């Protein structure tokens, strides 16, 4: 005797949501937290007492040594350096919050994808293959999330 689920060829739904919906929600949460925490880390520094602190005065998109190494490469797009580094932390936090809240989830995922591609470009220039691979996984996860975005639930703005 076969069950109704087996006859229909679909899996049972947990709380009325499909496996794809749950998968998208887990991926959405992971990508959101990754972007938020990474963005917040750009505002982390050490105060006068030697304690870890957060604040606008500590903002640094990347360590100077890394930036200088990338900037020394002939294929470096120097005209993009200042706007990119000035906005990176803010864009990560904003896009992460948007993803977490479901506020324009597709738009926020595209923003994250573009940021990860841009960061990958910098690491390609300095031949940091491990970092390139790591960011490649992030890009793949964003692409997967965009492919599953039709299964988005708990979103403030479902359409975008």
Care to describe what's here?
It contains 6 helices and 2 strands; from the N terminus they run ααββαααα. Strands 1-2 form a two-stranded antiparallel ribbon. The termini are far apart. Helix 5 (105-125) packs antiparallel against helix 6. The longest helix has 24 residues, at 78-101. With 160 residues, the chain is mainly alpha-helical.
Q: What is the element layout, followed by pairings?
A:
Elements: H1 4-8, H2 19-41, E1 44-46, E2 52-54, H3 64-71, H4 78-101, H5 105-125, H6 129-147
Antiparallel strand pairs: 1-2
Question: Low-confidence spans: pLDDT under 50, at least 5 residues?
Answer: 1-7
Ends apart, CA distance between termini: 44 Å
The tally of beta strands, per DSSP, is 2
Strand order of the largest sheet: 1-2
Overall average pLDDT? 90
Order of helices and strands: HHEEHHHH
Brief descriptors of the model:
two-stranded antiparallel sheet; disordered N terminus; mainly alpha; 160 residues
In short:
With 160 residues, the protein is mostly helical. Helices cover 62% and strands 4% of the residues.
